[in-house]
């Protein structure tokens, strides 16, 4: 196709092992967009290689040497395109990506690579996490991966990569941490072994220490998890980049672990350290807010959760505020509850309404809204005039005021202890 010749050549690169169930999904897209598909197999014993060749990939074999970076770099050496798109076998493009790829590349002059959105899926196929990674980058011998696990892309001469933000245009799904697949990876303890090898070679790598904390936490060894998280913090530089997801995860995990133990002072000390190093990161405030809710510290919870929302709104990259972004519904519910319990009923109403406009059948949101109205009404709460006003307000959210709406409102009223409103709504009184 003549127009294709004018476009940059894109090489899809992958390293795989026993991924036969994923090969068709990850390789069957990109006709007219991908110039070549490079698959590096590290020792499959199933039909992975056969399927990859059938789907038009160039298959190469690389003996596994406990080093993901080495395998990825081998794939880069085999690629002949102008640009590399590096995916794992359990990743695949969101709808519309082939059409967006060339327009993005047309804007990439002066950039070495681009951040892309990576949307994690649970076993139900629903998005449960959002992050960004450098999946698209120039094919140059100077760009290579380092670290045998949790690899990082960078220039071999130490230069910083010039990176574009392609998160809005380029999104890829990832289901490698769902259900049985994740449990199998965790039970193998492969990651733990590779992390220990990496740390033995780079004993001051605070990021690897944080990853070790994650592994022990996954195994339920909280004592070891805290030990490695604290070592990571101790080895961090005085200042951190504004977007440093690894470090923010380490801090957030420590706050959570201390909160679960009821160690209030330690949680707050870690929070203070985290905020000094990464002042724009919302996840620290999110964790502290949830901690305060669990401890019935309503006024403090309102401060932390409000701050988390504000920071997330100001964030410019998906590599920061990841836990906050993934938990906004929970945050708004708990923020509304904090306002209600601390006597700030006006803010409770405003927050609950914002939540219900996005999700009308959120029971906790409606319960908080009706609780605030009930408390505000005082002795007048059970009068017909007051309930008419409340229902008139609710019709701004539940426009059709269907039987389903009435039933939902009645259930929320019952939960809020507003029995008269419950009976009134169930009676279907004409408004």
Walkthrough of the structure:
By secondary structure, the chain is α/β, with parallel strands linked by helices. The chain contains 20 helices and 11 strands. The chain has helices spanning 2-6, 20-27, 48-54, 68-78, 97-106, 179-187, 190-201, 206-218, 222-235, 245-261, 264-277, 283-294, 298-314, 322-326, 328-341, 345-358, 363-377, 384-394, 403-415, 419-426; strands spanning 10-16, 36-41, 58-61, 83-86, 91-93, 113-121, 127-138, 143-146, 152-155, 163-165, 171-174. The strands form 2 sheets. Strands 1, 2, 3, 4, 5, 6, 7, 10 and 11 form a 9-stranded mixed β-sheet that branches. A two-stranded antiparallel ribbon has the order 8-9. The longest helix has 17 residues, at 245-261. The radius of gyration is 26 Å and the shape is globular. The N and C termini lie far apart (65 Å). The model has no long low-confidence stretch (mean pLDDT 91).
List keywords for this structure.
single chain; 431 residues; alpha/beta; nine-stranded mixed β-sheet; two-stranded antiparallel ribbon; 20 helices; 53% helix
């Amino acid at each position: 196709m003549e127009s294709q010749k004018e476009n940059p050549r894109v090489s899809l690169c992958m390293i795989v092992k026993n991924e036969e169930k994923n090969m068709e999904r990850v390789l069957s897209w990109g006709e007219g967009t991908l110039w070549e598909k490079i698959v590096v197999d590290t020792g499959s014993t199933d039909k992975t290689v056969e399927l990859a060749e059938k789907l038009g990939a160039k298959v190469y074999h690389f003996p596994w040497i406990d080093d993901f970076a080495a395998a990825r770099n081998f794939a880069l050496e085999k690629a002949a395109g102008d640009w590399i798109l590096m995916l794992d076998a359990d990743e695949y493009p969101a709808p519309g990506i082939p059409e967006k790829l060339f327009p993005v590349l047309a804007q990439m002059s002066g950039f070495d690579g681009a951040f892309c959105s990576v949307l994690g899926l649970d076993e139900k196929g629903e998005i449960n996490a959002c992050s960004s990674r450098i999946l698209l980058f120039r094919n140059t011998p100077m760009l290579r991966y380092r670290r045998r696990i949790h690899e990082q892309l960078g220039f071999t001469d130490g230069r910083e990569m010039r990176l574009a933000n392609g998160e809005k245009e380029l999104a890829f799904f990832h289901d490698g941490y769902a259900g049985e697949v994740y449990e199998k990876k965790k039970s193998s303890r492969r990651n733990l072994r590779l992390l220990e090898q990496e740390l033995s070679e780079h004993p001051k790598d605070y990021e690897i220490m944080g990853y070790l904390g994650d592994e022990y936490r996954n195994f339920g060894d909280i004592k070891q998890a805290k030990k490695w998280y604290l070592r990571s913090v101790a080895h961090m530089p005085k200042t951190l980049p504004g977007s440093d997801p690894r470090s923010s995860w380490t801090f957030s995990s420590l706050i959570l672990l201390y909160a679960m133990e009821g160690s209030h002072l330690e949680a707050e000390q870690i929070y203070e350290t985290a905020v000094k190093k990464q002042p724009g990161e919302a996840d620290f405030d999110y964790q502290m807010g949830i901690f305060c809710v669990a401890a019935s510290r309503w006024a403090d919870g309102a401060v932390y959760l409000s701050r988390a929302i504000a920071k997330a709104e100001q964030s410019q990259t998906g590599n920061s505020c990841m836990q906050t972004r993934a938990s906004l519904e929970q945050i708004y519910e708990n923020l509304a509850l904090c306002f209600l319990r601390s006597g700030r009923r006006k803010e409770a109403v405003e927050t609950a309404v914002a939540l219900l406009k996005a999700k009308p059948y959120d029971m906790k949101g409606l319960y908080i809204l009706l609780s605030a109205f009930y408390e505000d009404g005082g002795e007048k709460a059970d009068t017909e005039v007051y309930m008419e006003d409340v229902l008139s307000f609710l019709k701004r959210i539940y426009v059709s005021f269907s039987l389903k709406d009435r039933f939902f409102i009645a259930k929320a009223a019952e939960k809020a202890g507003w029995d008269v409103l419950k009976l009134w709504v169930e009676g279907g009184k004409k408004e």
